[in-house]
Amino acid sequence: MRPFYWILTWAAIVAPATVEARIKLATLPARERVELQLDNGAFTLVEEERIVPLLKSSRKAGNNMIDFSWSNTSIDKDSIQFRPLAFRAGKDWQAIGKGDGQVAINVINVAYPPGENALVWEVFAAEAGVVKVRVSYLIHNLTRTFNYRALANKDESMLTLRSFIKLRNYSGEEFGKAGVWAGFGPKFLKEVGHQEEIQMLVKRFPEVPIVKTFSFDWYTLGQLNPDKPFASPILMHYELTNDDKNNLGAFPLQPGKVRIFVDDGRGGQAFLGEDVTQLTPLDDKMRLYLGQSRDIVCSRTIEKNQRHAVRGNLHHQEIILKFEIENFRDKPATLDIFEQLNRVAAEYAGNPRGDVEWEMGNQTSEEIRFTYEKGNATPALHVKLAARPQDPDEKVQKKIVRFHFTLKNIW
User: Fold this and answer.
1) What pLDDT was estimated at residue 232?
2) What confidence score (pLDDT) does residue 162 get?
3) Nearest CA-CA partner of 339 in 397, 381, 310
4) Overall fold of domain 296-410
5) Which of 38, 89, 120, 254 has a CA between 20 and 30 Å from the CA of residue 205?
């Protein structure tokens, strides 16, 4: 099935072209070249080159009328463009223009016959011959998705990341052998048929350093279970940075599904899980979710909650959060504790009416390192944990840290 067809017709310059006057003289030859550009999620840009025979335009013979028709396809008709590239009357191609050695080839008019999936270009040709033309248009249902395969080494210090693009052609058109480009990375030459799906490897990134992170967020994840009312799930992620230093940085990593494996040390691979990533710009971080940790336990309790009157209904709220952490892993780890102080204020002090104002207290554990990537009202507390004792009979010691702060000017 070829839903596109072209017709070369003729019309007198002195008379307007009508649908009834369109007479089929010759079908347009097959495509010489097709390029598919997939850098837009909603449309795909298609550019095709063809060789079109033209007669010399004159008052008596008229101009060339080129009919571009399509059916059962998802072309955006407002996006169709026709560009003459080069002209040939003998053996050699000539430039198109008005200078010496050039030939004038001009699109005079475009008409849309009513009730048809078609348009007609009226083309002036100063000489008879053939012209190489490029037709470009946007088409729906020729889509792409991105997916990844990550394989971590046994000690989970680095991984190999493979980036794939999958092309799905349900546009109604067969493109044959076409150049395929995602807007970055390599270009592919693939046979693109109708209702076909083609997966291509965009790039392989070996030896990408990773950091395995463990995070605790009481207000996001809630209670672990009724038996541990003050504990919350600990989430595990692989974190990798999209830059040259970390063996990535070739291009922004597009959103897509990631299947994650780890070397099992016996010549095989163990499946860890899969995640769907967001766009990762250059120099930004990709976080791959691995599931919940069973090796680190953290409980959060309110050790102090005291109101200090200021005047009228205005008050400060002094709070100490106590964290009891156990690391059953045979490796050291860092636990990232995310606190949402607006939620703390709403629960214990009153509506903060925006981001809460707060200050650190002197009973905060000195070993906690603070960062504020999510904003001042959402500090991250980073706590280093030692590995569990090597002696299996020795009990894991709880690490206790405190976050002391005062919520200011609540009313």
Assistant:
1) 96
2) 98
3) 381
4) Immunoglobulin-like (2.60.40)
5) 38
pLDDT in tens, 236-291: 999 999 999 999 999 999 999 999 999 998 989 999 999 999 999 999 999 999 99
Rounded CA separation 260/272 (Å)? 5
Q: Which residues of the chain have pLDDT under 70?
A: 1-29
Specify whether the CB–CB gap between 309 and 315 falls below 8 A.
yes
> What is the number of residues in the chain?
411
Domain boundaries, the chain: 4-139, 296-410
Structure tokens at 345: 């204020």
233-267 core/surface letters (b: 16 or more CB in 10 A; e: else): bbbbbbebbbeeebbbeebebbebebbbbbbeeee
CA separation for the pair 193, 191 (Å, rounded)? 6
Supply the pLDDT for residue 16: 42
Query: What's the CA gap between 262 and 131, in Å, rounded?
Result: 57
Q: What is the pLDDT of residue 117?
A: 87
Could you write out the three-class secondary structure of the chain? CCCEEEEEEEECCCCCCCCCCCCCCEECCCCCEEEEECCCCCCEEEEEEEEEEECCCECCCEEEEEEEEECCCCEEEEEEEEEEEEEECCCCEEEECCCCCCECEEEEEEECCCCCCEEEEEEEECCCEEEEEEEEEEECCEEEEEEEEEEECCCCCEEEEEEEEEEEECCCCCCEEEEEECCCCCEEEEEECCCEEEEEEEEEEEEEECEEEEEECHHHHCCCECCECCECCEEEEEEEECCHHHCCCCCCECCEEEEEEEECCCCCEEEEEEEEECCECCCCEEEEEEEECCCEEEEEEEEEEEEEEEECCEEEEEEEEEEEEEECCCCCEEEEEECCHHHHHHHHCCCCCCCCEEEECCCCCCCCEEECCCCCCCCEEEEEECCCCCCCCCCCCCEEEEEEEEEEEEC
